[in-house]
Amino acid sequence: MVMDHSKQDGKRSIVSSLLYIEGAVLLALALWLGVLAMTHEDEEIRPLLGEILFALAGSGGLIACARGFARKKSFARAPAVLANLIALGVASYQFQGGFYIGAIPLVAIAIPTLYFALTIIPE
């Protein structure tokens, strides 16, 4: 089987860019939750801090995966696939709850990320 390295590099570039976008969005969510924690008195602070820490960890993981794909490292594939499968599960609940403004963009980024992450042939 002959590999077309330019196609593989293009896929790597796309999946890396999508993972950077996902990581940036999750980081923005964590920052927004941090502002919410500081500006609203009625919020339960402990669960909110847990969500902030989870969002920060997820953001860091996605950015690490993006860097891994860009550097042609094999460690990035499994966590990137897992994170995007979880994102599709979250989107499913959002669709069921009628939160289409959140579900549609989530599906729109998770499906291509999964496709490109799964179709890259390891070197």
Concise summary:
This protein has 4 helices and no strands. It has helices spanning about 5-40, 45-70, 75-95, 100-120.
Characterization of this structure:
With about 120 residues, the chain is an all-alpha fold. It has one domain. The chain is about 80% helix and about 0% strand. The chain has 4 helices and no strands. The mean pLDDT is about 90.
- Structural classification: mainly alpha
The total of beta strands comes to 0
What's the alpha carbon Rg, rounded to whole Å?
16 Å
* Structural shape: elongated
Measured distance between first and last alpha carbons: 13 Å
Strand content: under 5%
List low-pLDDT spans: none
Q: What fraction, in percent, of the residue positions are helical?
A: over 70%
Please tell me the overall pLDDT.
91
In DSSP terms, counting alpha (H) and pi (I) runs of 4 or more, how many helices?
4
Question: What's the structural domain tally?
Answer: 1
Q: Specify the biggest β-sheet.
A: none
Order of helices and strands: HHHH
Walk me through the topology:
Layout: H1 5-39, H2 45-70, H3 77-96, H4 100-119
Features:
mainly alpha, 4 helices, elongated
